[in-house]
Amino acid sequence: MGPRGTGGWAGRAGAPAPGRTCLLPLLLCAALRSLRASPGSEVNLLDSRTVMGDLGWIAYPKNGWEEIGEVDENYAPIHTYQVCKVMEQNQNNWLLTSWISNEGASRIFIELKFTLRDCNSLPGGLGTCKETFNMYYFESDDEDGRNIKENQYIKIDTIAADESFTELDLGDRVMKLNTEVRDVGPLTKKGFYLAFQDVGACIALVSVRVYYKKCPSVIRNLARFPDTITGADSSQLLEVSGVCINHSVTEEAPKMHCSAEGEWLVPIGKCLCKAGYEEKNNTCQAPSPVSTVKKGKITKNSISLSWQEPDRPNGIILEYEIKYFEKDQETSYTIIKSKETTITADGLKPGSAYVFQIRARTAAGYGGFSRRFEFETSPVLAASSDQSQIPIIVVSVTVGVILLAVVIGFLLSGRRCGYSKAKQDPEEEKMHFHNGHIKLPGVRTYVDPHTYEDPNQAVHEFAKEIEASCITIERVIGAGEFGEVCSGRLKLQGKREFPVAIKTLKVGYTEKQRRDFLGEASIMGQFDHPNIIHLEGVVTKSKPVMIVTEYMENGSLDTFLKKNDGQFTVIQLVGMLRGIASGMKYLSDMGYVHRDLAARNILINSNLVCKVSDFGLSRVLEDDPEAAYTTRGGKIPIRWTAPEAIAFRKFTSASDVWSYGIVMWEVMSYGERPYWEMTNQDVIKAVEEGYRLPSPMDCPAALYQLMLDCWQKDRNSRPKFDEIVSMLDKLIRNPSSLKTLVNASSRVSNLLVEHSPVGSGAYRSVGEWLEAIKMGRYTEIFMENGYSSMDAVAQVTLEDLRRLGVTLVGHQKKIMNSLQEMKVQLVNGMVPL
Ligand code: AMP
Fold first, then answer.
1. N or C: which end of the chain has fewer CB within 10 A?
2. What pTM did the predictor assign?
3. Where would one find the signal peptide in this protein (predicted)?
4. Which residue has its alpha carbon closest to ligand 1 atom 5?
5. For the segment 716-775, what is each residue's pLDDT rounded down to a tens digit?
6. 555 ligand 1 Cβ < 6 A
7. Is the C-beta atom of 449 inside 6 A of ligand 1?
8. How far apart are CA 793 and CA 40, in angstroms?
């Protein structure tokens, strides 16, 4: 019973097919042309507009829905079904689609475009006329399910029009095309049928598009993430593992989360280019080998060499490695490291040929070795037959050997930035010297630029000099302490131009200002992490002096959140917090204490990736407008700073954790000012007395709990940044854990929340005991898991605590110690459990 339309493909675009009721406005074809194409993350399973031949849909009864033949300006058919039995009683007209494969998707979306006539415009039809129709589906593994009964279809929804049209609209040729989207899932079979039921409306179903959503394949943090079909549940986040791209290796297992909307959220972990390769436009390519090596002074025991930087350094060259050996003696070789493009290899045999190879190292690792260059030492003077010379030669050789040993010892002591030795020990080969200290691979530590006698040396150690001509300044985007901050573009040789932020040093600066300004670059240049603002380089050889960093389209986080109040999902906010925590973990691992962590010092880019910034040397003391003088004379951003740092300048990663808790509060409250308009003095007093910020509105309880953990008075009880990162990861993996919000009645909107000191004595309930040891957050979990009496609690083991989700070691200790104490007291007959 193929539902061929009464008119067939009769008309040209816009021409009504003969013999049918005109329901469609005449401008329909024009409007259809402008229908939105499906976005990249939506995959069509069916789009009735693009099917060239028969759709194969079935109308039942035959005189219900009818297909009307329209073609567009390219004579392509427009499949439109209409029904308009508004004057007749008891209508039950079904339109059944053909079988649609779901291609493995378990949630599908149906977008309907239709017009619906206003019953008021139909004189006489009011009694029977309807303004809705129903949509159904039936799942089936194959096309055999087609003949099932109507009552086996499952209803998706009743569809009503936002806009119905009247005769008048038609006369004016006003187009009122409705678009409605519904979703269905989880689907368990291979495909399904859709059905549209009319019960007496005047409808033209213009198009039906069925699609699923996917997170399209991307490369992020050097890992490739595959096309991923979204989950069955509309709030589900699928954790997807990435695969490191060619020439890169895993640093931290790369993962992202595919949301039900087809967006990639919360990137975690990353890959790094392998040694010898550098990251460039989401790929890894190695620095090119040194191509030209020239010999310099040659004596009978030494050869001096010089060479040119590789044609494509692909980064800042940190040092060169020179490998040499006596020709045909390759198994016994010597390695020298040099920051210069010249070396002298001494202690060589006279009149012997030596083979040299050189390679460059950038932050990404070593490039390939150059080709082999062969040079010969000068021959010894003609040997004397006078045997009396022999002792002199022996003495000379001995002295030479001793001197050589001294030189090698000197080099190995690290006073020069290089070392030389025969036969490489694979461990030692990775060792390098930095500022007089031996540094082991993998244990990178932050070097305070203050330790350099000459601060310019620090800048050039850690920052690349950029020629001013490579920079185009476009506009001023902010005001820094030392001058304007601009956006612009950087064009480096062999690289595509890309957007950057440029901090300038204002004219008339003092030497100290210049030093402090460039100090930030010396610090920033030591960091390499996706959540730390990346330094491109500095301009110091011309004026104005500039610091060039990656450009963060959305500027500082506090302003951005204020501007977009209430616009993000909790997962997006947690993603931002996760990024900041990950950046801070990196800084604390490097031994760097930030001291001014606040949302105003976080920058956010167009992908909502947050990066920690603001690494000024004397910044905390001088340039932060939030910083206030303390009684001890220091200038400190009071609202963000831990009590011990305010009271006795104890700045540590644990005080950064306190500030991180405040940043969490700022983020969850979309840039609200911590402690509102309270004075700094009142804030210090309140915090000292045990009061804490209340939960922001609509804040998941787990996040507020984390804030409170960060604000523990005892800095050792605060979580570490790695614990914070894992905790946020856990919440992201399990978004339902974010659904429990802080109880509105327990939120105190404009008062601080009291955190009373640990209590003691006998406890009447588990809740009272947990509250007293400040572990009240676990009361519910204890109760739910059967630990509802102190008797039951007395049996709790460490393993039980872990199972209950008490993962913080500090909390486990607190609970176990308190239990232990109570048991001892019980033994002594003091406290009845
Ligand atoms: P700062 O001196 O680092 O506090 O920068 C002053 C202001 O300039 C910031 O608040 C931002 O609005 C803007 N800004 C600084 N660095 C960048 C950047 N890398 N990308 C975009 N905006 C920036």
1. N
2. 0.52
3. 1-37
4. 480
5. 999 999 999 999 999 998 888 898 888 654 554 434 665 533 333 456 688 888 888 888
6. yes
7. no
8. 54
